[in-house]
């Protein structure tokens, strides 16, 4: 029986491995063909791993050798995985956050999440494009999905539509079937927004549930690494591998207590909505919906959730929400700039080789290489403002206390007083609420506007409640099965234009 590569899930791939209708080499070769065909148009991948086929052959050999043994190989064994370009690898791939400033740098060690993926048998296919420097070089002058090394990433459903950022390439590649699964990172909306805009599943873990060691930092108090996949189950299989304590990342020691005995796969339940209390926060998120189809579909999905056994608590309010959604007013941007300067300087000093060793060096590189970085006068205004910060002082401490107050008296109070398992909002509009508290979210495809632009549904919860979010998101996904792949009927012709 011929294997259907498009939209193949990890379960389907592993079943095909088992019945010998598929090999890892055939799967890698298919994705390389997809990349060669579509990436010149979508610009979602910066580099392909030149050793990907070698690792695929190795996985096939291991599988064949294991047939006579009782050992059960990991779910990710032989599965190609794409990494956001901020996630470090100790191989022939670069790790540059999309910038020429770090091209040729050498990391001291692989990111812990990559070590775990390789140990599980996963195949690193390459590095995904991203909004350069997590779109932090400039908050206003650079578009979502743009980086110097790969150009402007395109939404595969609506070429003129935003792919969102900064894990844009990870989402585009999965959506367009150029890879099985991918890893992204989020500080503020960088997993949930690309997932929403590209009709894929994005799982943003509780901060500290996955290690950030070996990942180019943005704001360590809020940075997290998570999967971007086509299905909830695939995202859970990836989370299962990458979650856990890491002595190189202090935040993981505390967060590891959240991992349930038996792992996360046990929460992939068709009846996962039964008895779940879901809070619907309309203001101001529903008010910000732009399309009529999304608005109507959101109401339909509420009814579906109710029909599947969920208890809907509608029109809940989150105190301070308008202040939280203004990152300049809340102090979120100030803390980002302060943390970024400190953390990026520390990261750069630890590299074995690097053209730059500080944020000041990056700014100078950009100024001296405008033709490489496509630099306009205002395109590194955030970098310059971050460089002018002077450490973590009383003002920054007061901002942290204010944001903690917003979390405790806002989102957490709403969750606890109403005894809800998760909050549901359309799209990625509530990202700031979840960002400042390090809370987890799952975004699931929910529909398409009249022009074809995808939109998703976001479920968010308290720290450590991934198991509840997985139950809810999986049951919703299976009840609706909304996702459809983008169409490229004349891809070669478009690329040649």
From TrEMBL:
Amidase domain location: 27-432
Domain of life: Eukaryota
Record keywords, A-Z: Hydrolase
GO molecular function, one term: hydrolase activity
A Pfam match: Amidase
Protein name: Hydrolase
UniProt source species: Lithospermum erythrorhizon (Purple gromwell)
Gene3D superfamilies per record: Amidase signature (AS) domain (3.90.1300.10)
SUPFAM superfamilies on file: Amidase signature (AS) enzymes
